[in-house]
Amino acid sequence: MGTDGYDRYREEVIGRANVADTAELVDFYHDLEAQHAGALWTVANKIEPWEPATESVPIVWRYDRLRGHVLRALDLVTPEQAGRRVVYLANPGRRDVTAAVGWLYSGIQVMGPGEVASSHRHSASALRFIMEGSGAFTNVDGHKMTLGRNDFVLTPNGTWHEHGVSEDGTVCTWQDGLDIPLMNALDANFYEVHPELQQKVGFPIDDSTATWGNAALRPAGETWSKRYSPLLKYEWEPTYEALCRYARVTEGSPYDGLHMDYVNPHTGGPPMTTMGASMQMLRPGQHTKAHREVGSFVYQCAKGSGHSIVGGQRLDWKERDIFVVPSWMWHEHVNGSDREDACLFSFHDLPVMRALGLYRVEGLTINDGYQPLIAA
Amino acid sequence: MGTDGYDRYREEVIGRANVADTAELVDFYHDLEAQHAGALWTVANKIEPWEPATESVPIVWRYDRLRGHVLRALDLVTPEQAGRRVVYLANPGRRDVTAAVGWLYSGIQVMGPGEVASSHRHSASALRFIMEGSGAFTNVDGHKMTLGRNDFVLTPNGTWHEHGVSEDGTVCTWQDGLDIPLMNALDANFYEVHPELQQKVGFPIDDSTATWGNAALRPAGETWSKRYSPLLKYEWEPTYEALCRYARVTEGSPYDGLHMDYVNPHTGGPPMTTMGASMQMLRPGQHTKAHREVGSFVYQCAKGSGHSIVGGQRLDWKERDIFVVPSWMWHEHVNGSDREDACLFSFHDLPVMRALGLYRVEGLTINDGYQPLIAA
Amino acid sequence: MGTDGYDRYREEVIGRANVADTAELVDFYHDLEAQHAGALWTVANKIEPWEPATESVPIVWRYDRLRGHVLRALDLVTPEQAGRRVVYLANPGRRDVTAAVGWLYSGIQVMGPGEVASSHRHSASALRFIMEGSGAFTNVDGHKMTLGRNDFVLTPNGTWHEHGVSEDGTVCTWQDGLDIPLMNALDANFYEVHPELQQKVGFPIDDSTATWGNAALRPAGETWSKRYSPLLKYEWEPTYEALCRYARVTEGSPYDGLHMDYVNPHTGGPPMTTMGASMQMLRPGQHTKAHREVGSFVYQCAKGSGHSIVGGQRLDWKERDIFVVPSWMWHEHVNGSDREDACLFSFHDLPVMRALGLYRVEGLTINDGYQPLIAA
Amino acid sequence: MGTDGYDRYREEVIGRANVADTAELVDFYHDLEAQHAGALWTVANKIEPWEPATESVPIVWRYDRLRGHVLRALDLVTPEQAGRRVVYLANPGRRDVTAAVGWLYSGIQVMGPGEVASSHRHSASALRFIMEGSGAFTNVDGHKMTLGRNDFVLTPNGTWHEHGVSEDGTVCTWQDGLDIPLMNALDANFYEVHPELQQKVGFPIDDSTATWGNAALRPAGETWSKRYSPLLKYEWEPTYEALCRYARVTEGSPYDGLHMDYVNPHTGGPPMTTMGASMQMLRPGQHTKAHREVGSFVYQCAKGSGHSIVGGQRLDWKERDIFVVPSWMWHEHVNGSDREDACLFSFHDLPVMRALGLYRVEGLTINDGYQPLIAA
Ligand SMILES: [Fe+2]
Ligand SMILES: [Fe+2]
Ligand SMILES: [Fe+2]
Ligand SMILES: [Fe+2]
Ligand SMILES: [Fe+2]
Ligand SMILES: [Fe+2]
Ligand SMILES: [Fe+2]
Ligand SMILES: [Fe+2]
């Protein structure tokens, strides 16, 4: 009956549905539809695939192509009109849910000196990775933080938050990462505007980092019962130093190089319940082997340049470029320099996969671990 | 520009996006689209709703209307062709993802005496609630179990499983509940057919219940490291007795009556990582107050009759009828009898909501806690 | 220098301390003593033994020898004078810390009809195992429970508790088990008398069992944040039935027969933080193999008769007799009947050993797993 | 009958045992003793005290008085004879169990250049705090670490370990802290000598610190299933920097000043199951208020000088002096300098107290929070 018959998902495999359409059956299917029902065998092979088949596609967004558009937003709309001036990244396979990959949203936000956004909170968890400019700050539940290039910052679900740039700063851009699409998919998204639009600074500047950002030490009297990290800002310098130190004592992962996860120092686990983040260093000339994981990843190059091969597609990147790795898709990374290391920041939904017992990983065994390129 | 302009989600609220389309802006939006990007303020109010707005609708499937169709499947297709003869329930708002509500699949399966399905396993978690007939059995990783009316059975993710009806049994029907749509949405679904099509019985019949189904006692030497319950079958008689015993010492919940959760005896938590199940008893004449929860529910009436009001819609039910409560939708339950108790079985995705920190519940405060009916 | 020189723990093993006393060294030792110090090598082999060498000895207390003394207490002292009329069991090796074995206290309490003890609470955790009589009750934080033969009851640390026998009851005896010696050893024991001497009954009688004593079901709305079980009474009938059911599907343990742990239904773990309890059934004629565990055990025979071999000593027991198994001591159990099963109740400190990562178990490999008897 | 009668623990308080000896009762007590039993009311008030009454006494060991004795051990015994050349600290109230306080052992170990101790392992957990000298190292399960002044190092239970000083080093001393007395009290202590006496170096030097000692970052691919910290060495410099940074954003604790716990970065919890450790900074001139805790503490002054008042006794200390705080004893700390901060290292058994649910803390409310001194 062709590709839109009821039998278009048939498979000739024992244990799989394999029912040809007949007039009697099609009548039966129509009867079921009238009852808001259907015959499982007409869709079983579609909804029970042999392995995940994502709708997301591998793609890179070059910052030099986007930057001009992002800055144009400064002139086109005011913060009062727009709420936030953000250019979001739309995966061609996930435009309907406004996702960069899987159920993860990402955008590039821009703010000028002296601007500040209104405070609000939501069920969605958010993170930021600072790209350009000086003087940016954020205030999360009264904890005000100064933000510099390559700093990684949390605004966890349920926290009041507002961002801004100081009067003596410059135009700033940063990458936003959120699980908005997932919260909507799960029918679990709530939103509130702060009753006073702006919240107060309730603690010494950068107190969260001074209190919780010390290696293997924690304040003895502090209690913490939230599900997210009490450490809200992870600065670039100690992160890069940590990778260099780690590089001296380990080979690293064949698939991911020198790969470290940002953690909640209170638990040793991921910084938020639904999103994790990592920084990985590729040694000069390193070309990692391919593997695939259940989970979706948004990458930003933090240092250096190179390319990744994702699902057989080559994605070239340099500092500030953003690219994605969809779930269960082969990927490998290449540092383009023989002299400098390259660093890739990423955020992902592995905490969701692990919380639900769904995480898997598999290395490519053919071709010495390298994917053949697919003609685009 | 009307309902399909870029400005169709504008809200006149401080802190929300409120940007009118202009020719210059529309040009800008087109430029962004060419870069696989967009302006957040054109969609912000849509993707950050004030509260969840589910696509699922409240609906009841009456068993006396479906039963004939279900039995007809016995004649129309063989188990070999169909894999399983199941009529699935399609929520009008979720037909695209084959869900009964939210990301939960449900169907009614039928099997004749002497039939047995081929063994397989998948990432999706499954459960069964036995509706009709005698002689049904299931085999989960070698643990063979006999199944009777209103028994609740697990076939957790990753377990080999097969179902059948003994030669001396009768035609049997049961409700299947699975998280197939969620597994697909998360790009995490894997499927395998058992290499020998049929698995062996590796333990004494019903050993799981004899070993783990004892109140507040567990085998001293047994270790268990799986993420699902070692108890695979929860029988109806002790469940009903438990509710009767509980009824003698408690008022119960104003929203849910005498409400008990099936648990994993190894942890006291939900039986599987992604789905939970409950049985609740309504006393004769009881009319509970309305509340709403983040989470999706599929109900089956196990005993008695009555109706529920879900999102302002009255859904009448009697034994074997199935209905759903979508996420964050007001619901209240009414026992139609003044003399007999009524029992409602349900399964739901609260373990997902709790694992991700998203669960909320709220009682209706107006109108003494009862919803006004909405004209259909 | 003989057995009381400083060198009396010398061992001729490489890596162990092996320093002979000399005049110069003894002077040195005296100098250190004056500074509240000492030389480690004079005691190292003593405080770092090759394996645990307990001071507790295996011993059985025959109820027919103790019962008369216990009942005599009814006449000798009033409850007001004595607080509680209890005969405690003193292990010959642990009389200094009033322990039956290790750091576990046990006693036999007696109460006459119409008597009730005053309410109090303490850091020590307590449990009871009912031996004789009818009409006994206990009230734990307002939860009043009726107690019958072989029922196992908790009075966890920090709970107000009082015991009594109803007017129409008979003289009752029960075994008390507490971790009083451990609490004292850890400098952690607190005690309070109830400000009103008697506490109120705050819930329906036996509500804890009706609410939490149902197999693999828990009240859906109840929250529980205490570190002990919300189920306070474990009745004998369902326990015995569970063992019979379990016996039909398992061989059981070669060392412990049909062995089940009482658990906290809220967690699946031990009922209290510092003490666990078990019931085990020996089939007619069963003679288990010897093993040893890090942990101390107090046993009471609940049904039948037989003997145990503990540290090479034969301990004969019948219903109501109490015996102990010290830590890391070989033990095996023998049912004396070829026709009836025998049941042994026990409580122990395994939760402490497990919480601190110290639990070990080892089966005897020589002599087909049976200990040679040691002449007493 | 005087202080050694059976009634010497009587209390005239309702709810407490208050039975005077009589000839008949004393006969009864003798009868019970013959049965390895006793009457609870003769000991109840002793074994159920109103609050903990520790046998440990507050005491300080001045390093300038001990140092000469410690160094003398270098000449008096060889490492081969002594195993380790250690002077242990004996609390006057706990000499029988070789404890410095409660169930905690502490000693001062000395080693000369080129010496190395034989490798062994035990159930007891151990830690070291480096006092003097250069070139010390330790090897824990193949992880060799270089040790400097004020570094804190773990040798967790069950790990093979050996210590030494390099040929080009100087005489080194360090404080050992162990839970040996607790392991013996719990009948849980095992000991083994390494089959080859010396173990190999299996990893790059100091790899544990490079891998796990980075703030809020952990190696992405590493798994860890041990109950102790994968970070084995906590260096002094970053610890002191952390305290300085923390001091800029907090008042600190009124009882403990700027007080940080060393943690297991894999869990955020204590570094070992049975012992924790802390470093606290007292600001110039700071005099903390008194509080008391369930738990025993061994302190060493790491920087500066001052005194503590423990149980009403003044204990003066300067760098390298060691003192103890027994369980549930009031204590307060005073920095003797108005210009320099002072730092106190401590280790303690709070992880045991917390694991068993026994931790309590209470601030002194009288006298503005300061203890009156008790004449010695
Ligand atoms: Fe936001
Ligand atoms: Fe990867
Ligand atoms: Fe299936
Ligand atoms: Fe509900
Ligand atoms: Fe008590
Ligand atoms: Fe045993
Ligand atoms: Fe050692
Ligand atoms: Fe303190």
UniProtKB/TrEMBL annotation, chains A, B, C, D:
CDD domains per record: cupin_GDO-like_C, cupin_GDO-like_N
EC number from the UniProt entry: 1.13.11.4
Domain Cupin type-2: 108-169, 279-344
Root EC class: oxidoreductase
InterPro entries cross-referenced by the UniProt entry: Cupin_2 (IPR013096), GDO-like (IPR047183), RmlC-like_jellyroll (IPR014710), RmlC_Cupin_sf (IPR011051)
Swiss-Prot/TrEMBL keywords: Dioxygenase, Oxidoreductase
GO molecular function: gentisate 1,2-dioxygenase activity
Coiled-coil stretches noted in the UniProt entry, renumbered to this chain: none
Annotated protein name in UniProt: Gentisate 1,2-dioxygenase
Species for this entry: Rhizorhabdus wittichii (strain DSM 6014 / CCUG 31198 / JCM 15750 / NBRC 105917 / EY 4224 / RW1)
